Structures are given as structure tokens and as C-alpha cells.
Amino acid sequence: MNRSVVTALRPSYPPIVAARGGLFTVADGHEFIDLSAQTLNLALGHGFSPVSAAVAAQAEKMEFASSRFASVPFLDLCDRLASLAPVEIDTVAAKLTNGSDAVETAVKLALLHTRRRRIGCLPGAWHGESFLTLGLATTHRGRAVSDASLAVAAEEPSLAALTRLVEARRDLAAVVVDPVMVAHGLPEGDVGAEMRRLRAACDRSSTLLVTDEVQSFGWLGEHLFSCEWTGVIPDIVCLGKALGAGYPLAAVLARRDLRAVLQYNDAEFTGGGHPVSCAAALAGLDYLDAHRLELSDRAERFGLLLAELFPRDRFEVRQAGLIGSVTLRSPRLAETWAVQVAARAAQAGVFVRLTDRGRRLLIKPPLVLAEPHLREGLSVLAAISTATATDLDTVCTSAHTHSEDGRRCVVRRTVRAHPHLGYVDALLRTAAPGVQPLGRGPRQQHELSVGLDRIGVCAAICYVVEGVQAVDHGWVPGRALYAVLADPGTDPDLINGLVLRHYELVIRAHDHGIVIGDRWAGNAVVTDRSQIVLIDFELGYSGPHHEAASFEEAFTILQTLVCIPAENPVRENLLSRLLDSMVDRHGITRCAQVWARLAEFYRNPARPVHGGSDTALAYAGLLWAASSRLTPQTDSCS
Question: Can you tell which superkingdom this protein's organism belongs to (predicted)?
């Protein structure tokens, strides 16, 4: 990857060099059938002639306008959206560029109008990547990149649970929900009835109902807006993705009485309402509105094709308009199945994305993908889905999930007496006297791994093997974290990011009341996209949470940093920043105690350190540096 590119996502494939309709070609000549509309947004595909013509004509006339003047396409688009929306929704804010802008603007409207300070949402939902909207995502709750004080999540990802949340509280300015539940793999049951109950609960509590239709607008067959699909009119609607027909654009539609609460510069982004994007959007809306019946017929054929290719006895298929999702009928190892199907499909020239925290295939092809190509792509995907489900019966009994053996699908770990239990017991007696080692059986490992995944800590989900004292989990391709950190060829910038992310996973678990246990750098795998996945949950800790958590955080810091070569200056710098974080969380007195006890344990010559003399010196250096930075004093956190 080019070092000048700063992103957490490493591209999986060569760059796209050519595209037309629902097909695209990458730099190595590999051609793809697109079943994901790129970033789930390119409803009309590449090179759609009405859009291209509108863009070219607008660029020829004028490319940008100050909001003091606006532009004709901008004003026309606002009028057009208001005319297409339900009569009660006739105010449009379109000086926005993407779905994050739209949801954030909707939340601002709700906070200002109701004068309340909390927003209801569904766990596992996704509403954007700005500081505010990430606060609505339970997967990012508590991270430094989000506002954790704003959102209140329902107890489970269902519309019924969201209704109960609204009924139980009177402090919600709004609830934000995608009625089509694309991030959850599409809904089950009578969505209209559930939305009517939610609408009634919002009315009783004076809570605004915000529908996030960034994912669904344009993909519901004959329906443009979700209210046409559910029969329930919200107070605010958020649009994005398909709205711009491939160009950056978003909009918020709201009741007339909400329009005056925003002031200038509250929600007006420089690139928002761009004349070229608005011209593209108008051409796209012309097509969507004029072809409603055709799109309805296409949605019906799409459903029949899904049912034909994915037998219901083996797969669970859901559909909403021209969006589909597929997973295994049995949820066991669904995460492993889905990620491997997506990877194998890409090798076969079919691009598909995942949803529902990686457990489902999300099928959302461009609306203009030729039906022979759609059938071909779905047929390839179905064949790979079936073959991969069969492959899941192939189990490799091994502890080394970071092996380069790409043939593995599932790894089985036999639960046994931990070989280092005596060592860990001695360590805890010295470094954390109130904490005891805890051996976890298959059921406990399953529950822990699922719980971690639920709060956004990426973990290999463990499944109980019936009749055997063992767990199965999906093979995690990559390298052990300690190997990546110890490699002299690893970029120091990557080391910095990996160490901080590993520590963050641990403290996120602690903030949710979960102590993971045995978090050394061999129990984390770094994937080829530099994602950290936690593995091995056999050995945990029991005892008072604050004592176990502070010990685990110190242990994680020590065991991670000791892997970094001593000559790498990033190690000392990381130690300083991580100690500051730990002190902020637990107070300097408790931190000093934990680190002093760790030093006492590792200074004991009767406790040999794995890795030989070089590793022993690394421990000694880190422990001395930590002790020198932590001067005990009385504070309120001790």
C-alpha cells in the first residue's frame, strides 16, 4: 500500500480502472460482477447515460456556487424531493455530502426542537462515521472517536425493543432507525405493524421518529421512501448513497415546523449541495420515479431468483425490495462461512459485502445490472456458499490459528488443564492478590466471545462441540501480533497503531464489565488488513472488577511492548502514552501498585521469563521505566 495513503482499510484488490453498468475491471485485468453497488450506493451503476449527460451539462455551465447564491440544480432538487416525499414532510436540507452529515443534521434538529439530550437507537446499527454518529453505534461506544453520552440503545436489535425503550423513557429527543435494517441483515416479521407501534410510542412521549434511509432509498422496488413501504410517516428522513447517483450528496427531509430551529452554519457543508451532484441526483430521481413498476417487477424476479439458488432448507434468505441477505440456516460458524464466501466469490469475479456483524451476505446489486449478469453472479455466489458450508465440516485440530495454511476453515481447541496455570497463579498472587485464575469451559468461551463481538471487540467466535470438551472457531488468516511487533521489517507507524488498537480492545471490554484474561500478544492475530482479532479465551480472571481490570491492562501493556525490539524508539513512546491512559482510568496509586507488583514478580530469579536473556532484559527495562513514571500519591481514584 502507498505509504502516503492514511486509512485503516488496506485495499484488498488492485484499483478499479474501468467500469460500465454493474461490471468493473481492476488493474490486473480481473473483471467483476458487482453485487454490492460498490459501497452499497451506486444504484444506477457506472456510466448511466442520463446521469453522465446531466453531469457534463452542469459542469459546462457552472461547477460550484456559494450558498449565498445557491444553484438552480440545488433549488430544483430540494423542490423535487419535497414533491416526492409524503405531504407532511416538506422541508429539505440538502447542503450535505454523505449519510453521516444527514444523520448528524437530523440529530441536531431533534436536540434543538425537543431540548432533550438523548437519542434512542438499535444495538449493532450503523448511522455514520462522524464523531456524533459513531456515538450511535454500540460497536464504537466508549472509543475516543465517538460521543458515548448521546445514545441509548435498546436491549436487542429489534423494532419491538426500540418501542419498549421509547415507552420506558421520557428523555429521548428522537429515535434513529433504519426500518429496512440493512445493517442487521434485513428485518423479519410484519415491519409495518412494528413501525406503527413505534410511531404511536413516539407520539405519546413527544419523541421524534427519524428514519435513516441512506441504505434503502431507491432500492425498495416501486417505493422510494420507507414510509411507502411500511405505511408509517416519520418526522425526519435521512437520505444519502443512491440519492447522488454516484456523486457525493445527502439530504434531510423534515416536518415544516422543524425547519427554523437550525441557524446558518449549523448544517451547511462546503461541498454539500454541489451543483454537479444535484444535477446527477435529479437525473437519477427521474429514472427511479419513472420506472417504479419496472423496479417492482424486478424486485419480484430478484426474490424468485434468491429462492431458486439458495434453498431454504440450508440457507436463511431475507429480502426487502431489491436488497437481499443470506446466511446459513444454522447460526453456528456463520461468521466464518460468510467471510470465506465473500473472499472466494471475489476470486471468482463476484463482489459481495457482508452485514449483520459479518454473519450474512448482503446482496445489493445496481438496479441496472443486466439480468443475465445478475443470474450469473448469484449462481456463482450460491455455488460457493454451498461448497463453503460443506467445507466447514473440515476441522483442523491446532492451536496455531495464524498458520499460513490457507486450506483451513475451522480450528478446534480441546479444553484442557492450562499448561501455564501454575505460573499464572503465582503471578496473580504477587501482582493482583485479590484476583484468581479462571479456567473456562466450552460454554463459557462461547458466551465470552459472543459478548465481546456484541460490544465491537473483534473476536473469533467459539462454538461448543457437542459431546467433546472442545470449541470450534473460524480459522483467522494472518500473523500473531507478537510476530508482527517483533519483526524488524514492520513499519514503526504500524506498530504504533497495532499496539494502541490492541490496548483499546482490552479497555473497551473493561468498560463493559468484561475481563478477558491472558491478553498477551500471542492471543491476538493481525490480518492482512491490519485488523486485530482476539483468540483463545480458555484462561480468565475472577475477582473484583477494578483489580482484575487494572492488572489485565498493565499485563497487556507489558506483554505487548516486550515484543518490540529495544532499539525501536516507538516502544518507550508507547509506554509513556499507555501509562498516561491507565492512570487516567485507574488513578496513579493503583497503577503504581500494579506495576510495582509486576516488577516484584519478574525480578524473582525463580520465575524464568520465556524467551531467554534478551526478553528478560526487555521486561526489566519496561518495568523500570514504568516504575520511574509512576510516583505513588493519594488521589480520588485509589
Answer: Bacteria
